Structures are given as structure tokens and as C-alpha cells.
Amino acid sequence: MRPQRIVEDISALPTFAWGPRMTMWWGTLGFCALEGMGFALAIGAYLYLVQVNPQWPLADIAPNHWPGTLVLIILLVSIWPNYLAERHAREENRGAVQRDLVIMSVVGAVLVAIRFYEFTQLNVRWDQNAYGSATWLLLGLHATHIITDLGDTLVLTALMFTRHAHGKRFSDVEDNAFYWYFVVATWVPLYVLIYWVPRW
Amino acid sequence: MSEAALARNGRDLRDTALGDAELDARLSRTWGTTASLIGRLSTVDHKIVGRRYLLTALAFLLLGGALAAVMRMQLARPESQLVGPDLYNQLFTMHGTTMMFLFGVPVAEAFAVYLVPLMVGTRNIAFPRLNAFSYWMYLFGGIFLWSAFALNIGPDVGWFAYVPLAGPQYGIGKRPDVWAQMITFTEVSGMAVAIEIIVTAFKQRAPGMTLDRIPLFVWAMIVTSFCIVFAMPAVMLSSTSLILDRLVGTHFYNAAEGGDALLYQHLFWFFGHPEVYIIFLPATGMVSTIVVTFARRPAFGYLPLVLSLIAVGFLSFGLWVHHMFATGLPQLGASFFTANSMLIAIPNGVQIFCWIATLWSGRPLFRTPLFFVLGFFFIFVIGGLSGIMLASVPIDLQVHDTYFVVAHFHYVLIGGAVFPLLAATYYWFPKFSGRMMSERLGRWHFWLAFVGFNLAFFPMHILGLQGMPRRVYTYQPEMGWGSLNLLATVGAVILALSFALFVWNVVSGARHGDVAGDNPWDAGTLEWATTSPPPPQNFSRIPLVTSREPLWAERQALPVIGGLAVDDRQLVVTTVTEARADIRESSPEPSIWPLLAAIAVSVLFVGSIFTPWAVVWGSIPVAIALVGWFWPKGSKEDEE
Fold first, then answer.
1. How far is residue B444's CA from residue B451's CA, in Å, rounded to a whole number?
2. B581–A14: do the CB atoms touch at under 8 Å?
3. Stated pTM of the model
């Protein structure tokens, strides 16, 4: 090995930070890009089927939009406690983070419950025709995201009540909040597509 | 680190307090993999995982090659009875699927998993547990596919599994389900590695490695990884909706119920065309690296080379319809995709001219890796030219689904990816193993592979023009295709012999090869700054980069940085563009949970082709495994 000379000492650097300074933030962004592409392609497939069929929807009545509208409202409102969780995590305020995460867990659980009901209000089965298949696919894709984020939030909530709740774990809370914005943002186009395109 | 954390961790020993020998020993302990079985299965060392990826991909290459050999034997003469039509369908499907999904993409990722962290001067890949998980998923997916083949339920619908052939009406039994779920395995693995590579290259570069000092191979892997991120969701969507059509009665591709078979082709090729570049771009990165080292000068046109990579990445998403010219698309659409298919030749041409200029103005050393690179130029250019022919709709319609297409994509894929991979193997083998491969056997290998390849595949252009369709298990003597097919088979035998020689060279090189030393080629990039093979921590002190070829610029003494903890797996996180040191982040410790998670996910995936309830019940062990994976265990790395 060739000789070395030390030219810089980085002892004083922190061991964790926030936002884009962390690798985990970039990893989360990467998965958002990946899953966002999945959503975009599923939307493309839906619109392709709209275009190849002379009528749309391929059902007598459009889906009941109210459960989906309720989901939209709750998701938009949840941005506020989610933002608080993110901010309190950056302040490393353990008590406040615990409270925010409990709220976000309840929000997630309520959303999952409504989402199950939402499937029954689509007025079409997945195996009825291509319209039903595409509608169930879009709703199912988003449901998977709500469920996985709820799982993630529950684990983090539990973690925040243990001795591990310090340092880098707050950065994890911040990343979880970041991902939730993605879950909220993706619902807006899907909501329009599932509930309002069949009404036009 | 706070005082409370200091108290928890006991003595916070830094590398600046230790001499070289003690530092090496202590870091090896901190970063090492224990020799027990659980230790080996839990490892998160990117070099060990990368080596497993490499060996597994090599095994699949040999298996896929063996299938090709059987097909060539069958086609060597008209009306051969060696294999029947059913087995033949499985053979070409398994061959294509294995080569594309179990060899082509994973082998590039294998090199990246091993080399990118070393080339950017860090101690481990980003998200090393995800990396371990990705390997197990890949391995289990490959075993799943090949077990199915052994049980005579190997897929038989071609490597792109078009509907309606692969749909519920015609694709009876479980064969297409096996194909579709194998896709899920390998894509999960591929996408995970893509994210790891992007984050490693963006955030873990050694201080001083600004964007314009990133090694060209790393640039190639960054662009490849972005292609994976935006292309692979398409094949996940197409194969998942295919399996939903087959298993739970959806109608995505059923024209009678408002579905559309062409939707499948669009989704598949939206992935499938970038896929070609996902396989080819890493190879161009390897070629750039090897050309620079053996030309003994920095790359001619670093900037155009990087911009070409990015341009190819973008353009690769605008070509997919040229696989569908025979489906009766609107003429305007076809013209657009023709133009795009010709356009992509420009950045590829720029790269080739940059390499030629580098060699022209350098003092080239003709060693085995460079021979394979020269072979690549020759073969890939022919493949590129026949690609431009195929981009033209009238020609494409004439030769669609003939051996002309088979010849074209083997010239592109073997010439464009396998030859560079062989070059890369000869080039980096000393780093992987600490020993050299034989130069003499390497020359024999090259010439046999070059002659064998051209003999095997050039005649296929002519066979295609004569009208021989692909995917036929035999043909009549009156067609007059016998002698060219026999010639192709002779070439295939020579090519197979060359691979036998290659395997022998790898095995004997690993055992008895000359000891390589740190930098046997006197190369300029950072992977050669450490020992061969590298220690568990890669670098005991992280280099400070001052040039594109740091080892050429700093011949007297390598500038390094100090101040990292010794008893904790710390690495340097830097800023994205300027690569200023920013955080001393802890890298995760070894864990058995990624393996357990991969087993749980595999059970879910395989179970789901038998009952949809597997997805529901199978998600419980998956959730348990993921919680076990993420829950802190109280180690220093967890408690920062």
C-alpha cells in the first residue's frame, strides 16, 4: 500500500443529520420515485383502456365517491399532524413526537378501515371486466401504500416509547413523515381517475 | 456525539489515535464477518455479497449457455429428433429468461455492488442489509425458476410471455405463473440494488470526489440505476396484471371484456427496451475504465462520455414501440420511434469515438482485458448497424421474428455486454481474489470466443434473410437452411469451449495465479488503492480525492482524512455535488433478518401462484421479519 498523509480531521462532524443530508432521505426519495413510476404506469394503463373502449365505465353506475372523498379529506388534513411529527423530530422533542405518532397511527388505522369499505362501494368487481380490474388495481396499489406506511408508523411509535428513542431514530421519524406526503400526493390523481373520470 | 452517547459507548476511540498496523487490525474486527454459519448468512459486507452475486450470475450464465448448446445441437441438421417441440419451447424461454433476468442484469449489479463502494472510496454500500436481502431474493427467484424447469413446469411462452399465449386461455398449467413470479423476485432485487447504487454514488463518495471526478464506471452505474428505477415498475405491472388475469380472473388483457393484448406489449417493452440499455450501459462503463488504464492516459472526452451515458439513458425510454412495428400501429407513431431508434446511435457513436481517440493518443498495452474490449468494438458495431436496419419499419416487417433479429440481439448483447464483462473479469479478478488470471489462457479464450461467436451468429443474419423464423424446433431439408445452421452449431461449440477455458482460468487463477499486489495494472482509480482482496473496512483511512485518477495524481503519498471512530462502523457521508465531508454515519451491522425476510417474501410469492390467500397470510411472517430487521438491537451502530 502506498504511503498516506492525513490532510483533514473530521472528528467534529455529527453522526446524524436531517433531510437530504442523510442517506436514508435519498433512499426514501428513491423508493418514492420507483413507486411513483408504478403509479404513473398504472394510470397510463387505465387511460389506455379508457381510450380503446367505446364507452367508459364498463358498468351501469360509477363508483360511490363518498368514501374516497372522505379518504381525500382525511389525507389532506393529516398533513398537519404529519408536519408536526417531522418538526418535533428535528427538535428531538420526544414527548411531542410520541403524541404526533400516536395521532398518525390512529389516522392510518382509520384510513385502512375506510379503504376496505371503499372497495365495496366501487359498484364493480375486479373480475367483471377490464374497467373493474383497472379500478381495483389503482385502489389496491394505493391501499398497499397506506397499509405499509401504517405498519411503519406503528413500529416507530412503539420505538419512541422505548429506550431506543434518541438520536438517529428521530431522523427515521422524519423520513417516515416524508414518505407520508408521498402517500397523500399520490391519492389526488388516483381519486380523480377512479371517481370522476367515469362520471365524465 | 452527545455526552450521554459517549458515556453509553464507553471510550470513543478515533483512528487518529492509532498507528497503521493497530488501526488495520481493529477496523478489520469492527467491520469483519464472523466465520460461523450464522455469521456468513448474516453478512452485510458488500464485497462478500458482491462475490456471491458474481458467482451466482456466472452459474446462471453457464446454465443458460447449456440450454443454448442443446438448442444448437437440435438445429444443427433438419428434422432432428433430439428434443421435441414442448421441451424446445421451454428451452428457448428458459434460455432468454435466464440470460436477461438471472444473468444480464444481476451480473452488472454484481460488479457494481462489489466495485462502486471501492471506486468511490467508502467502506460499505448504502443500505447494506437491503443489499443482502436483494441477493437472497435473486438467488431464491433463480432457484424457483430452475426448480420449476426441472419439474417440467418451466415457462414455455418466450422470454416476454405475450398474451394471449401466456394468458389464462392458452397458457394452461402453472408455466406462465412461474415466469411471472420469477420476474417479481428478480425485479425486487434489481430495484433494491439500483437505489443502493444511486445513494452510494450520491452520498458516500470520498471527500473531494466532485461530480466531474466520479469514475466513468460509477457514472454508468448511476445512469443504469436510474433506468432501473423508471423501467422496472413497468415489468412488475405487466407481469403482476398477467398473473392476476390468470389467477383471480381480472380482464386486463381479455379483449372480450374490454381488455387489450397490446397493452401488455406496451407495458412489457416500456421496460424491455430500457432493459437492453440496463445491460449495455454498465458494459460501457467497464470499457471506459479498461480503455483508460491500458491506454495509459485519462479518458479522451470525459464530459462527452458522461453526457452520452445520460443521453442514452433518456433516449432508451423512447424506443419501446420499435419492438411492436408488426402490430399495425399508426404510421406517425412508427415514424417517431424509427427516428428515436436512429437517434440513439449518435451518443453511442460518440462513446466509441472517445474510446478510439483515447487509445489512439495513448500508449496502449495489449493485455487480455483490452483484447476483449477490441472484440467488443468489432461485434457491437455490427450489432448496432443491424439495429439501425431494424429501426426502419419496412425492413423490420420483412425480418420480424426471423433469425435476423436473433443475430442482431446476440451481436448487441454478447458483443455489447458479455465481451466487456469478460474484459472486466480479467481486469478486476486480481482485486477480487488477490491473484492474476493466466494471460496465455486469456488470449486463447479471447480468440476462441471471438471466432466461435462470429461463426455461430453471423450465419443467422443470412438465415433470417432467407426466411428462417425464430423459435422453431426444427425445419425441413428442402428449406436449404441446413449448412448454415451446421456452421452456426460449429461456432457454438467453439464458443462453449472458450467458456470452458474461461472457467478453468478462473479456477486455476484463484488457486495458483501469480500474486497480484494492490495495483497490478497501475490503474488510477481508488479500488486499487487498497489491498487485493480488500480488507473488510475497504480503506483504513478514507482517501481525499484531488483528481479523476487519484492514484496517478498522487504517486508519492495518498492524501487521506482522519477522525472516524474505530470501534463503530463509521463511514463518511458527503454532500451530493461537491463531496464535502458532512456526517460520520454508522453503517448497519450484520443481521440474519434480511435472510429471514427474503425467505418469508419467497414463501409469499411462490404461495401466491397457488392461492391468492398466500398474499394475506404470507404477509404476517413478512411483517414480523421486517420488524425484526428494523428494530434496534442496542449496538453502537443502532444507538447513535
1. 11
2. no
3. 0.96
Residue A18 Cα to chain centre, angstroms:
20
The rounded distance, in Å, linking the Cα atoms of A10 and A13 is 6
Check: CB of residue B263 under 8 Å from CB of residue B252: yes
Please tell me the distance from the alpha carbon of residue A129 to that of residue A136, in angstroms, as a whole number: 11
Whether A19 and chain B come into contact, CB under 8 Å, resolves to no
Q: How far apart are the first and last CA of chain B?
A: 7
DSSP state of B589: P
**Residue in the block written with cell 443489499:** B131
> What percent of chain B is helix, strand and coil (3-state, nearest 5)?
70, 5, 30
What is the 3 state secondary structure string of B363-381?
Answer: CCCCCHHHHHHHHHHHHHH
Q: Which amino acid is at A36?
A: G
Contact A32, A179 (CB under 8 A): yes
Give B321's Cβ-side CA count (13 Å radius): 18
> What pLDDT digit, counting tens, does each position of B67-114 carry?
999 999 999 999 999 999 999 999 999 999 999 999 999 999 999 999
d(CA A120, CA B577): 50
Complex ipTM above 0.90?
Answer: yes
| A109 class by beta-carbon count within 10 Å (0-12 exposed, 13-18 middle, 19+ buried) | middle
Determine the Cα–Cα distance for residues A122 and B160; give it in Å rounded to an integer. Answer: 33
Nearest to B498 by CA among B443, B460, B457, B458: B443
Mutation site for A-interface testing, chosen from B199, B265, B270 by largest number of A Cβ within 10 Å: B199
Q: Are B427 and B289 in contact (CB under 8 A)?
A: yes
DSSP state of B535: P
Residues in chain B: 640
Q: What share of chain A is helix, strand, coil (3-state, %, to 5)?
A: 75, 5, 25
Contact A137 B1 (CB under 8 A): no
Cell of B524: 488510477
What is residue B586's three-state secondary structure?
Answer: strand
- SS3 state at A109: helix
Residues of B in contact with A169 (CB under 8 A): 632
Chain A residues within 8 A of B198 when measuring between CB atoms:
26, 30
Tell me the per-residue pLDDT of B244-280, one tens digit each, with 9 for 90 and over: 999 999 999 999 999 999 999 999 999 999 999 999 9
Buried b (16+ CB within 10 A) or exposed e, A182-195: bbbebbeebbebbb
Alpha carbons B310 and B264: distance in angstroms, whole number: 28
Place of cell 467458456: B499
B199, B626, B630 ranked by CB distance to A30: nearest: B199
User: What letter does residue B436 receive in the DSSP assignment?
Assistant: P
The whole-angstrom separation of Cα B553 and Cα B201 is: 22
